[in-house]
Predict the 3D structure of the following.
Amino acid sequence: MTAAQGDTGLLAPGWAVSAAASATSDHAYLRALLDAEAALTRAQAALGLAPAEAVTAVTEAADAGAFDVRSLAERARAGGNPVIPLVAELTKAVGEEYGPYVHRGATSQDILDTATMLVAVRTLDLVLADLGRTERALARLAAEHRDTALPGRTLTQHAVPTTFGLKAAGWRALALDARDRARAVKDSLPAQLGGAAGTLAAFGAYGATDPAELPAAYARELGLREPDLPWHTLRTPVTDLAGCLAFTAGALGKLAVDVLTLSRTEIAEVAESSGGGSSAMPHKSNPVRSTLIASAARRAPQLAATLYGSMAAEDERPAGAWHAEWEPLRDLLRLAGGAARDAAELAEGLRVRPEAMREHLDLTDGLIVSERLSAELAPVLGRARAKELLTRLASEGRPLADAPELADVDLDPTHYTGSAGALTDRALERR
């Protein structure tokens, strides 16, 4: 398949030209399918069910470069999945003597599910690396701006002061949460092996004394977890993966939407290191990395919903539920991988503008610390009168410093950030 015929990500800049795109390409899936087939022969040889010569023959023939992905995709329509035509081609490539050891005892779902787990593990390795870059960059920002005050905003309005360090520490906490989930899911992903209806019966027919030993041997060959049971219609691995990927996109989405807000022209408290241009407006420097991450965060939950819906898989092998998983799962891997890449670039290059933050703290002439003033004036004026005074001053638009009742009160908003510094320090202790 030429680049012009394949999925290049023309309409998906969030994952195009990313490591995750390569790890989830049709060629990558083909490689994983062939890895799964070769590992099956090796596992059977390890238990004395296939000769060493068969292992060599199958492994050498399982070269992804020797197969035509487009042809396999076209012929997959006949049987509903790509494993059927692939097995035929691989068997032919292995040759008459050892061809019978290709795919022996397995069903198509064994191979495709196992390949999917391989693709997921390989992609999660890339996601984890970029999450590591993201959290390290955010840790630096949090430490550097531990005491940099800016307006806290609730329901879009100024609330009370906070610090940029605490905000960055919160972004980092979410990146670490995503990392922990991705690690746990990656380590839990199992091989799939059950045969036609999940009983391993064919392996016994081919001479296995204890067919139940074979899934463990298969998993070892692949570096995947040993399955407790064949999971053809027990889709916990897929839904765990879906949840992890959707969470990752959403966690990084929080960073993105905050940067989108704070980088607005009229706010300009932060800026991406290199924004994107506009086809019509030469002056613009758009926050493209944040935009792409936010896009991924909005798409991921619906993709995960399809995978959760596919848990209702009938019988021992389902018609449609399994097939419905393939594309949304690959899309999720790509979205999470692209978002992690963009988040790392965003965090590493984010420009912080403390002078704009300070200017915005003063926009309301001291009203941003009205909570503190209410607490300090209540013992003197009474709670009701204190609230009435502050409400009146706010409605009149008068600077609080002009009110005689507040002549001796500290109105500096940078002095009212509570425990933000200590909370940031605590957050940075997490590794």
In short: The CA atoms of residues 150 and 357 lie 5 Å apart. Strands lie at 149-154, 157-163, 270-271, 351-352.
